[in-house]
Amino acid sequence: xxLYGLPVSVKDCFDLAGFPTSCGSRYYAQKNGLAREDSGLxxxxxxxxxxxxxxxxxxxxxxxxxxxxxxxxxxxxxRNAKLLTGGSSSGAVASLQEGSALAAIGTDTxxxxxxxxxxxxxAGYRASFELAYDWSLWLGAVxxxxxxxxIGWLFRDLRDAPLLADALFGLxxxxxxxxxxxxxxxCAAREFLHDCNAAVLRGWEKWRKDLTEHGATIVPIDSAFxxxxxxxxxxxxxxxxxxYHAAHTGNDFSHFAPVIAERLxxxxxxxxxxxxxxxxxxxxxxxxxxxxxxxxxxxxxxCAPMNELLAGADHTAARRSILRYATPLSLARVxxxxxxxxxxxxxxxx
Length: 350
Known about the structure:
Blueprint: E1 7-11, H1 26-32, H2 40-47, E2 51-56, E3 76-77, E4 80-84, H3 90-98, E5 103-108, H4 114-119, E6 123-126, H5 129-132, E7 150-155, H6 161-169, E8 184-187, H7 198-213, E9 217-220, H8 229-249, H9 258-269, H10 272-295, E10 298-300, H11 316-332, E11 336-338
Parallel strand pairs: 1-2, 1-5, 8-9, 8-10
Antiparallel strand pairs: 3-4, 5-7, 6-7, 6-11
């Protein structure tokens, strides 16, 4: 099998026979008890020959981007314990940094594969919404917001992506072999990057230079409408997350971290009429993204405006700043690859 003998870690929102599924919450770990059978995703990995080495830490309920968790402790980077891993697939990147896994399963609703990969200098692949919404993979799994939830991989080397994508999704890669193939890449406008720090901009410019040298044409796009993404995404996400967890907690969100409980309570307070309005805005946003993708082969933008998150610092403002970069592609439900900052870019983190 394609993954024969490969050590793989699995995010702890997927059932693994004989282990509890905590979803980053002690309440759920106790409530769920030991899983009787593997989730559809874990079963698929075993069929493909993977050796599942364990389940990994995550931001509580997968509802966060920093990797901070009051129940099980904040997730810090094995390479530098002064830095958070990012989240919500926080333990996934930690397992790769420490070497216990060579590939790791993560989920990505609003950046939960892309951001930890970028902060930890790793590669990431978030599958398209349609591809990742294979119902058989989600059997025995915990959702955050079904309208945006996707599955994907975290790994070290971009050359491993085709194998990993094929093993999990049956997605065959197609190599561009035409000598004069013209690849047109649309890049986020300079105005959109106004809050990126110097290290991120160095990595960004290095990738633009490398892609151009390999024959791609990179042109700026009108990304001003991306500023609306977070305000469309957040209420739909919160409303769907509240409905899911209310059904599993008897409508008691006090089991969770206060900031997450507040988000859930807010989502629950939104009426169906309000959510219908946001879904109309989502449809309009997606049409604009479809137009961009009809005019370009790829789009490129930083995963986050910063290259590190200090452990123990207040990252309240960082969440919205990061999601400003992640949510446009979440709304579009497109596949995304995180390109780690290459050697010589001045920083190892992507």
